[in-house]
Automatic annotation (TrEMBL):
<dbReference type="Pfam" id="PF22725">
    <property type="entry name" value="GFO_IDH_MocA_C3"/>
</dbReference>
<dbReference type="InterPro" id="IPR036291">
    <property type="entry name" value="NAD(P)-bd_dom_sf"/>
</dbReference>
<dbReference type="InterPro" id="IPR050984">
    <property type="entry name" value="Gfo/Idh/MocA_domain"/>
</dbReference>
<dbReference type="GO" id="GO:0000166">
    <property type="term" value="F:nucleotide binding"/>
</dbReference>
<comment type="similarity">
    <text>Belongs to the Gfo/Idh/MocA family.</text>
</comment>
<protein>
    <submittedName>
        <fullName>Deoxyfructose oxidoreductase</fullName>
    </submittedName>
</protein>
<dbReference type="GO" id="GO:0016491">
    <property type="term" value="F:oxidoreductase activity"/>
</dbReference>
<dbReference type="Pfam" id="PF01408">
    <property type="entry name" value="GFO_IDH_MocA"/>
</dbReference>
<feature type="domain" description="GFO/IDH/MocA-like oxidoreductase">
    <location>
        <begin position="139"/>
        <end position="256"/>
    </location>
</feature>
<dbReference type="InterPro" id="IPR055170">
    <property type="entry name" value="GFO_IDH_MocA-like_dom"/>
</dbReference>
<feature type="domain" description="Gfo/Idh/MocA-like oxidoreductase N-terminal">
    <location>
        <begin position="12"/>
        <end position="129"/>
    </location>
</feature>
<keyword id="KW-0560">Oxidoreductase</keyword>
<dbReference type="InterPro" id="IPR000683">
    <property type="entry name" value="Gfo/Idh/MocA-like_OxRdtase_N"/>
</dbReference>
Length: 341
C-alpha cells in the first residue's frame, strides 16, 4: 500500500530477526511512518516468523534470512541481530541490492564497519546505523542553542547510560563472542552524542569492570574522551548500575541538561533545560516518535529527497572510538587516536 507522500511511493522493508527492539519499537515505527511499509520478516524458526508476522500485520514471513534477501520486492532490510552478526548480514543484504538500517553498534570493529560501508557503496545502497535518538528534533535545537552562543564556549559533555540486568545470566549481552558488554550495548550512545557535539576525539582513557561471572564482558565502564582545544567528554555506561540515561553539556556561561537523553517515557520527559548565568528555562519538544523520524529520514535518503542525516562513515568513526575505548579498558592505558580521515 502506497502512503501519500512527496516521493509517490513507499520503501518496502524486510526485517531480519524477531528481536525485541524490532518487534517493540522499530517495526511499529516503520508501519506508522510516512514513507515506509513492512512487507516481510524472517527468523531461523519459521513458526516464530509466522507468529510474529500475524501479530504485527506483516504479510510475508520466511524461515531463513537468506530467503528474505532473495525477495525481489523488498527495497530495504532492518537488522537487529546480535552484534557479531551485523557485518556479515549487512554485507549480504547490500550485495543483494537492499538498503540497510543496522542496529547499533553497527559492527564489532571499525574495520568491520568499513567493510560494510564499502559493500554498500559498491552496491549503490544506503547504509545507516540505528541511533534513533539523533533524529529527534531536540538535538537540532540543542545544536542551535550552542551555535547561538547561549551557554558560551562549550568545554565538555557528560553522558550516562546505565541499567541493571546482571541477574539475567542467559542474556546475549553477557556473551563476549557475540559482542556483549556495556560499551557496545549502551556506551556507544554517549560516545556518539559527544561526537555529535564536539567532533572527533584525539584520545580516550577508559576504566571498566570485566566480570568473571558474565563471560568477562565489561559490565560497567567510565571513560574520558579528549577533544581538540582542551575540551573533553566523560561518560558512564553499564549493565550493573542504577538506571539512568542523561546528558549534560557544560559551557563557560551556562549548561544544557537532558534528563532523558536517549530514551524517554513521555513527551514531557523529552524536554531539556538551558541554564544561563543561573537562570533556567525548560525547552519543550514536539510530540514525536524518534523511531518514526529515523525511518522517514532513511527513506528520504533512499529516494534522493535529502542526503543521509548520518552517513555510513559516521558509523565507522563511532566504531573507531569504541575500538579505542575497549583497548584502553582491556590494556589499562590511554589510547591516542590518529586524525579522522
Amino acid at each position: 500500500m502506497t502512503k501519500a507522500n512527496d516521493a509517490g511511493r513507499t520503501l518496502r522493508w524486510g526485517v531480519i530477526s524477531t528481536a525485541d527492539i524490532g518487534v517493540r519499537a522499530v517495526i511499529p515505527a516503520l508501519q506508522q511512518s510516512q514513507y515506509n511499509e513492512v512487507l516481510a520478516i524472517a527468523s531461523r524458526s519459521v513458526d516464530r516468523a509466522q507468529e510474529t508476522a500475524a501479530r504485527l500485520g506483516i504479510p510475508r514471513w520466511y524461515g531463513s534470512y537468506e530467503a528474505l534477501l532473495q525477495d525481489p520486492e523488498l527495497d530495504a532490510v532492518y537488522i537487529p541481530l546480535p552484534n557479531h552478526l551485523h557485518a556479515a548480514w549487512a554485507i549480504r543484504a547490500a550485495e543483494a541490492g537492499k538498503h540497510v538500517l543496522c542496529e547499533k553498534p553497527i559492527a564489532l570493529t571499525a574495520d568491520e564497519a568499513a567493510r560494510m560501508a564499502a559493500a554498500a557503496a559498491a552496491a549503490g545502497v544506503v547504509l545507516a546505523e540505528a541511533f534513533m535518538y539523533r533524529h529527534h528534533p531536540r538535538y537540532q535545537r540543542i545544536l542551535d542553542v550552542i551555535a547561538a552562543g547561549e551557554i558560551g564556549r562549550v568545554w565538555g559533555v557528560h553522558g550516562v547510560f546505565t541499567f541493571n540486568n546482571a541477574h539475567d545470566r542467559g542474556n546475549i549481552r553477557f556473551v563476549r563472542a557475540m559482542g556483549g558488554g556495556s560499551l557496545y550495548d549502551v556506551g556507544c550512545y554517549p560516545i556518539s552524542a559527544a561526537r555529535l557535539l564536539l567532533g572527533e576525539p584525539e584520545a580516550v582513557t577508559v576504566q571498566a569492570y570485566f566480570s568473571p561471572d558474565h563471560d568477562d564482558v565489561d559490565m560497567m565502564a567510565f571513560g574520558l574522551l579528549e577533544f581538540p582545544g582542551g575540551r573533553s567528554a566523560t561518560f558512564e555506561c553499564g549493565m550493573w548500575g542504577d538506571g539512568r540515561n542523561t546528558l549534560q553539556i557544560v559551557g563557560s556561561d551556562g549548561r544544557i541538561d537532558v534528563p532523558h537523553a536517549f530514551l524517554y517515557p513521555s513527551r514531557e520527559a523529552a524536554a531539556f533545560t538551558v541554564t544561563v548565568r543561573g537562570e533556567t528555562r525548560v525547552e519543550p519538544v514536539p510530540d514525536v516518535n524518534q523511531y518514526v523520524l529515523q525511518a522517514d529520514d532513511f527513506a528520504r535518503a533512499v529516494f534522493g529527497l535529502a542526503p543521509p542525516r548520518f552517513p555510513a562513515d559516521d558509523a565507522v568513526r563511532n566504531m573507531r572510538v569504541l575500538d579505542a575505548c575497549l583497548a584502553s579498558a582491556r590494556e589499562r592505558r590511554r589510547v591516542a587516536l590518529a586524525p579522522a580521515e
